[in-house]
Design a protein that fits this description.
By secondary structure, the chain is of the alpha+beta class. 29% of the residues lie in helices and 31% in strands. It has 2 domains: 10-73, Arc Repressor Mutant, subunit A; 80-256, 3-Layer(aba) Sandwich (Chorismate lyase). It has helices spanning 10-24, 36-43, 47-59, 86-94, 104-109, 129-135, 166-169, 185-191, 211-217; strands spanning 63-66, 70-73, 80-83, 116-126, 142-152, 155-165, 197-207, 225-234, 239-249, 253-256. The strands form 3 sheets. The protein has a 6-stranded antiparallel beta sheet with strand order 4-5-6-9-8-7.
Length: 263
């Protein structure tokens, strides 16, 4: 039953009640929602209102509708946990403190190499104003653009568009896409050239995916993405690699971090 005194549209009120049933677990993943006729009877609303409520939940990515079968609560995606420590494995390998090759991606998943793979596409290009600002270099300076799509068990999980200074990597194994995934990630790749990273800066924001991103990551309708912008810094505080951006499905990622308050 909707509240006639509420200033919210009736379809929004019905959607909210269904949403709460989904979040509480009363309607678990895979369960079927009432049909349009069922919603009309249960909430004493019009067909237009029932359809509007279903559409709202579809847009949010909470349900999927199958032609001729009805609407169902969408399965919860396995969650990937991003830890602040994930780059430490790369740095330890680059500094030869550990012998086992690693990447921050593999650390995140605790996955062996048989479970994940990377599709790569490299090209020489000119730094855009944004990339130039992240590097602290003049715009249109030559850079190597590295586009990487990471998969786990053949499901695409993240897109990285990363840049290295072309003058630094030209003619080296780091510029060869066949060498990806590089042991130790970008930090390991730079270490192979004698460039030791000492810090990683990241900023995180959310937005809706572009059509290309939604298709590449196989996103359900209404699912946003998390976008991480990364700068890898050397000892003199200069950026030696920037990722603009790392794009991840927001419904598959939890970002964990800790802030120590003691001096």
């Amino acid at each position: 039953m909707t509240d006639p005194m509420s200033d919210r549209p009736a379809y929004n009120q019905v959607a909210e009640q269904l949403r709460q049933r989904i979040y509480s677990g009363e309607l678990p993943p895979g369960s079927k929602l009432p049909s349009e006729a069922g919603l009309i009877k249960q909430y004493n609303v019009s067909r237009v209102t029932a359809r509007g409520a279903i559409k709202e939940l579809q847009t949010e990515g909470l349900i999927v509708t199958r032609q001729g079968k009805g609407s169902f609560v969408r399965d919860r995606e396995p969650t990937r946990r991003l830890h602040a420590e994930r780059y430490q494995s790369d740095a330890a390998y680059a500094a030869k403190r550990i012998a086992e090759p690693a990447t921050s991606y593999g650390f995140d998943y605790l996955a062996d190499r048989e479970r994940y793979r990377v599709d790569t596409s490299f090209r020489e290009t000119r730094a855009s104003p944004r990339v130039a600002e992240l590097f602290g270099i003049p715009a249109r300076e030559a850079v190597l653009e590295r586009r990487l799509i990471f998969y786990i068990d053949d499901r695409p999980e993240q897109i990285i568009t990363s840049y290295l200074l072309h003058a630094v990597v030209r003619g080296t194994p780091v510029a060869d896409p066949d060498n990806e995934p590089w042991p130790g990630g970008a930090i390991g790749a730079l270490a192979s050239l004698g460039i030791m990273a000492v810090a990683v800066e990241e900023s995180v924001r959310s937005r809706m995916p572009t059509p290309e991103e939604a298709d590449t990551l196989r996103l359900a309708t209404g699912v946003p993405v998390l976008v991480i912008t990364r700068r890898t810094l050397a000892e003199d505080n200069r950026a030696v690699e920037v990722a603009a951006d790392i794009v991840l499905p927001a419904d598959r990622v939890t970002i964990d971090y800790r802030m120590d308050l003691s001096e």
